[in-house]
Amino acid sequence: MLRSTSTLLRTAARAARPNFAVAARPLSTALSDAVPAQRAWEKSCYFKIDFTIPETDSVYDAVQRFSAYDIGCLVVTNADGKMSGIISERDYINKIALLGRTSKDTPISEVMTSSPLMTANMSATVEECMHKMLSKDIRHLPLLDPEGNCVGMLSVKDIVKELVAEKDKTINVLSDFALGKGGHFGSD
């Protein structure tokens, strides 16, 4: 008899609690939504600039763009405008500066990173992009549209910013839930 009474009390206590999930999505969904790479790219410094450079330009031209835009990588294009590689600050340091070459006399095609080139689809998640970057020890990842054309670029900084923002959002949801604010509506 005691067991059935305690069961009834627990059931009654659950029924008396407000049901916040009716008005919003379940907590598990709020915490597990995957962040698309496109969203991170739209917040990136690469979103509003031309991040491509022809492979026939000099390395000096690429370095000028790095400085002007405060970026560390450009997508290299061939004569047809298709992506043929990338050039980064690392390429400049390792293949020009350390070897005593001059950037004004060296075409990008001689020092760019080409095959195999790590890329991601625009529909990939930020977590997938981060995994690709970490697995290959790279700091920049070209983003491709469904036809395989390069349409964006993510840096490791873009990935970190987006992941930190998502973690902050999760912390706010959990804090609100712990404080009895429901957890589904978020702090304002």
Give the CATH class of the domain at 37-163: Alpha Beta
Mind telling me the C-alpha Rg? 25 Å
CATH superfamily of the domain at 37-163: CBS-domain
Number of helices: 7
Beta-strand level of the residues, as a percent range?
Answer: 5-15%
Shape: elongated
Got a strand count?
6
Structural class: alpha/beta
At CATH level 2, the architecture of the domain at 37-163 is: Roll
Proportion in helices: 40-55%
**Which stretches are low in confidence, meaning pLDDT under 50 for 5 or more residues running?**
1-32
Instruction: Report the end-to-end length measured between terminal Cα atoms.
Output: 48 Å
H/E element sequence: HHHEHEEHEHEEH
The major pleated sheet works out as: 3 strands, mixed
Report the average pLDDT across residues.
82
Task: Record the strand order, biggest sheet.
Answer: 1-2-3
What does this 3D model show about the protein?
By secondary structure, the chain is α/β, with parallel strands linked by helices. The protein has a domain of 127 residues: CBS-domain (Roll). The strands form two sheets. It has a three-stranded mixed β-sheet with strand order 1-2-3. Helix 6 packs across helix 7. It is elongated, with a radius of gyration of 25 Å. The N terminus is likely disordered.
